Amino acid sequence: MTQSPVSRLCLIALCSACLSLLLTAAETTPDSTPKVDFGNEIAPLLVNHCIRCHNPGNEKGDLSLATLQSIKDAGYLTPGKPEESYLLDVVHTSPDTGKAAMPKEGPPLAKEQVALLTRWVKEGAAWPDSLILQEKSKADLSWWSLQPLANAVPPESKAAPDHWQNSPIDQFIFAKLQEKNLKPSLRATKRELIRRATYNLTGLPPSPEEVAAFEKDPAPDAYERLIDRLLDSPRYGEHWGRHWLDVVRFGESNGFERNVIIDNVWPFRDYIIRSFNADKPFDQMVIEHLAGDVIGKNDPDVVVGSTFLVCGPYDNVGNQDPVQAAQIRANTIDDMIRTTGEAFLGLTVGCSRCHNHKFDPIKQQDYYSLYATFAGVRHGSRVIASPEDRQEQLQKRQPLQKEKAELLKQKSEIENAIQKRAQAKAAEYEKEWTREPAKRTGVEESFSPVTAKFVRLTSQGLDTNPRAMTGYRVDEFEVWSAGETPQNVALAKNGGKATGANSRVAGDFAGAYDVGLTIDGKIGACWIAGSPDLTIELAEPQTINRVRFSSDRSGAAMSNYKATFLAEYKLEVSTDGKTWQEVASSRNRKPVSTSHRRKRFYDLEVTVEERSQLNEFNKQIRHVDQQLAAIPNPPSWWVGNHSQVNGPFHIFVGGNPQRKGETVVPASMTTLNKVTEGYKLDANAPQGQRRLELARWIVSKENPLTPRVLANRLWYYHFGTGIVSTPSDFGYMGTKPSHPELLDWLALQVQNNGWRLKDIHKQIMLSETYQQGSTFREDAARIDSDSRLLWRFPPRRLSGEEIRDTLLSVTGKLDLKMGGRGFRLYEYLQDNVATYVPLEQFGPETYRRAVYHQNARAARVDLLTDFDCPDNAFAAPRRNATTTPLQALTLMNHQFTLDLSRFLAERLRQEAGAENVDQQIDRVFQLLYSRSPRSEEQQAARALIAASGLEALCRAMINSNELIYLD
């Protein structure tokens, strides 16, 4: 317990009814002494001195003082019996030490306070049932970001140069500079501007021809026309779509320990790129993100927007423990809540999962209202098609399905006739089946001694599928020599060698599927067959008379694996590996199941003519299946599945789904009740309506957070730092705005512009603030070292994607194909869990823009990872820009950059002439730096080419700072 100001009194969970009760006339004891007033006397005492360390999210000493029941359960209080209440013992001052055990921080409770607590316990410890004590948040509803947007008037300054008085953006910026006695920088050169603007809007470098044309264009609107051209480029959506994919934690694997790939989530990436290119109103995007399946039920281009809810990581292990399953489900919904709050509102709503937010005025009730809103959303795929497309598919499929059904019927009639005849002979057949069925824990076959150099096991049917021949498991295979001292001559240490075609090997599980494990003498890891045969070659010919093999000898894996063992088999031996002799089989064993029994009857009874007829039917059925396969299926996309989950919904005390507190309903957050018209729905309202109402509330005109957060994100991606430098946290733990009036002005521009972004881009980029040079000035840096006040344009390093795309672009290898399935810079290996092995060789299929890379979680992809592309296990509202040795090593030595150095040299020889070294040097400087080389650079480049070749120059320039830094 710690001392805190009286102003920290927090009765967050106290409902109006309880408050009214507490304010009624105090009851009196028979001696007319008023009873202790819990609301006015005890609750403030506990909140001010104790609740910080003893609450459901921070139960120091395993004690929570949030409710009376939690105190009683901890054994700290017995109502009516102060002498049995340990809570009083720890706050009493010891006569021996002169100290109290609690609170540990701050002064002890005053004697009057201890006496008050004691009297309260003696009187029965009255505590309203619905009251939960919680610590008061640092910020309240007066926090700056929760206030309505201010209609800020751009400040005028006579000291501002004329060209700094035309744009409200410049007026706001200049006013702050003037406050700090700072002056703006001179305008950037045309070369700097086109390079800056092209990267900023498209993520790619300008071509030398574009730079030359812009520098030669004397028209006053040349720069404005440049911006218009870049905003109209399809490359704009690819670049700015990537920004938004960072914010919404878009990934193409599920993360967690399995981390399997999701091959059909890419349509959401394409939807984002299309939306940015089309300048779709952002408020429309928000609604589509949260409720696209509701407003666009029959329009795949709208439904796909709701992938936002399920494009984050989720645990799909499928825990059978109901307690753990409930926790996993709570974690899954928590991801949706956190992303929604941070991406759109700039509020860390997730911090209210276990208790009221400690820093922002967000109640735990708000969190669980959102929990109720998303309760019907589950991760997964479903078919996305319009009614017209579905009808067209049906019309094409129906006649073929009818034809197939008729063929299957005729085939079945023949098979039934065979089975009928076989049933009549069942007793005759079955009398030959004298041995027990094959067992996974071990099969042993003994036979007359025979000389063998090779032993072959051939599958003739798996235990749960008599027609399947591959995929069975073998955890040990033994071949025993005949004689008085038999030995397992198949054992690897005795010279045995195992082979099996196409055996399963999966990345870091390669050892677990090595065919050599079948003869290593150990039980545990197993080999999984990719072909029917397992062959053992002995060190030398041996006389053998016994073979034993198993799939799960210990029985430990029996409950976890299904069709993994062969139930029908034959064993053969050979001395030369060419001529084989059968020594044992499963023919005289009892079948392992009814399906195996039917298969045996069929094999014994079918005639040559019937087999021919059945083969013809199979041929016709395959032909129909091919026709059906040629009809494209309606797309199945990773858009989530939605079901109706009705209330009651509860607060989870301490975030624990097993500890249900008071009930909640889908509703807007109380944080903004003073500035927005909230909503509250019935607990059984349609699940789609809940999400739609939330979306409409988020983008309502009265909500100041959404446009502020969006305007700040735009500013961040243009200048490298937001007006609020924590783009997804506008709360107490975030930073305050450097230019609050400018932020509100931009936010109003967003709303007034119909939430379309391209015009806001243009206003920012046409400002003098954006067009400044980036030259460092020591006097200004002493006042504003990180250029937050924008006395110059802040230089930045290119992102990982920009670096990779730039290298492909300047070498002429960039494939600008848009959309569709992504490419991979890793080899994907999957066996229950996934492994991502970075590629060492790169083909043309990998030369697309990095935004189209199949972006799996926790998958290291060399250059992109080294240059700070975030792991999308979490949202990335800001990109780091670190400097590490790996970056230099990757650019210098990675096969990708070595290949591109060679490609760049080939381009130079082709475009500048194979023998004209000076033109090659000029061309490479224009391609990479958008400028001509200086004389000393020309000389150094010529010397390098003479000593080491043109490829060496290309490699050196790819590794230069000027290429990857933007001023």
Keywords:
single chain; 967 residues; alpha+beta; six-stranded antiparallel sheet; two-stranded antiparallel sheet; 20 strands; 40% helix; globular; disordered N terminus; iron; DUF1549; metal-binding; metal ion binding; heme binding
- Beta-strand portion reads 5-15%
Calculate Rg over CA atoms: 37 Å
Distance from first to last alpha carbon: 53 Å
The total of beta strands comes to 20
**Secondary-structure class:** alpha+beta
* Uncertain residue ranges: 1-29, 504-512
If you had to describe this structure to a student in words, what would you say it looks like?
Among the domains are: 6-122, no CATH class; 140-150 and 180-232 and 715-795, no CATH class; 281-384 and 641-703, no CATH class; 436-590, no CATH class; 895-966. The longest helix has 38 residues, at 387-424. The chain contains 33 helices and 20 strands. The strands form eight sheets. Strands 5, 7, 8, 10, 11 and 12 form a six-stranded antiparallel beta sheet that branches. The two termini are 53 Å apart. α10 (234-247) crosses α11 (266-277). With 967 residues, the protein is an alpha+beta fold. Residues 534-586 form the F5/8 type C domain. Residues 34-125 form the Cytochrome c domain.
List the helices and strands and how they pair.
Elements lengths: L15 H7 L15 H12 L4 E2 L2 E2 L8 H6 L12 H6 L19 H12 L45 H12 L10 H13 L5 H9 L5 H11 L1 H14 L18 H12 L4 H14 L4 H4 L18 H24 L18 H10 L3 E2 L3 E2 L3 H38 L1 H5 L12 E20 L10 E2 L1 E6 L15 E3 L27 E2 L4 E18 L15 E9 L6 E5 L8 H12 L2 H23 L5 E2 L3 E2 L6 E4 L7 E5 L22 H12 L6 H15 L20 H13 L5 H9 L1 H4 L6 H6 L12 E2 L2 H11 L15 E6 L1 E6 L24 H4 L18 H9 L1 H18 L4 H13 L5 H14 L1 H9 L2 H4 E2 L1
Antiparallel strand pairs: 1-2, 3-14, 4-13, 5-10, 5-11, 6-9, 7-10, 8-10, 11-12, 15-16, 17-20, 18-19
Helix pairs in contact: 2-5, 7-8, 7-9, 9-23, 10-11, 12-20, 16-18, 16-19, 21-22, 28-29, 29-30, 29-32, 30-31, 31-32
